[in-house]
Amino acid sequence: MDFGTVLEAMRPDLKRVEDRLLEETALEYPLVGDILRGLIGAGGKRLRPLLVLLAARAFNYDLDRLVPAAAGIELLHTASLIHDDSIDHAELRRGQPTLNSVLPPEVVIMVGDYMFARSAMLAASTMNPRVLAVFANCLGSICDGQLREIFAARRADVSLDDYQRRIYGKTAALFAGSAEIGAILGDATDKEIDALRRYGGHLGMAFQIVDDVLDLRESTDHIGKPAGHDLRQGTVTLPTMLFLQNRLGDASSLALVEHVLTESAPGDHEVAAAVLAIRRSGAIEQAIELAWQYVEQAREALEAIPEGETRDMLAALAEHAVERHY
């Protein structure tokens, strides 16, 4: 089964989540509401809400319980992106203008906080204390990941363990929480809930590694933000780490990449040259290899849930996390 087949099968249910998201972003402030709806509308494949739905689908699949939770997860993700863009001073997200490109910083932070509040209200509407606990843990992990990124900025000595802990917090924790919440609301057993949480975590790690690869490999038109954005911001991602620590370039290219990473305002030509050096070094291929290892761990976790179409769908979703690289 391929990922396109999964999306087609789940399209009607995801439409219900989409409708709920649009309701939640219908604010009284026209400019803010328009931008939020643009951000929501450009939200791609809705992988996190899809994960909530699929995690429940193998058990007790009750959309009335699942849709608010799935929408809440996506709003939590959107709120984290708003704050992330504010910290990074990003002007584009998913090809759309960010809030901080048109609004004062204090307003952007308040809008992000409001979206966090709305997401929490949706989680609370499930009337399930265990869901609320998972949701709160996700929020804490996202903040931890963001703080780790801030304090590690423009450092060339970030370790693989530091990187993995950071991306688990920023990205994988929400994937893990999405799967766990879906399984809880689907009345899965504790063993199945634990397996799906681990599946989601491994999926999220693979997904973020590929995101880091795409940031270096693709154009602005493809990823909706300038290529090499992480490097310019001083954020060490896996391909850059592998390039520097495994010394995959000559002395001049290693010095250039380290300079761009640690310099507060590198020039466009320096960023472009550094990106090209990493692309040509084999670091991207090594990063993708690690992403596939996480996909394999995700597949292994699925062995604890019943065989059938839903398990096949979850396996296809895990493979998609890396296949979108090609």
Automatic annotation (TrEMBL):
Keywords: Magnesium, Metal-binding, Transferase. GO terms for biological process: isoprenoid biosynthetic process. Its cofactor is Mg(2+). InterPro entries: Isoprenoid_synthase_dom_sf, Polyprenyl_synt, Polyprenyl_synt_CS. It comes from the Bacteria. One of its GO terms (molecular function) is metal ion binding. PANTHER family: ALL TRANS-POLYPRENYL-DIPHOSPHATE SYNTHASE PDSS1, GERANYLGERANYL PYROPHOSPHATE SYNTHASE. Belongs to the FPP/GGPP synthase family. This is Polyprenyl synthetase family protein.
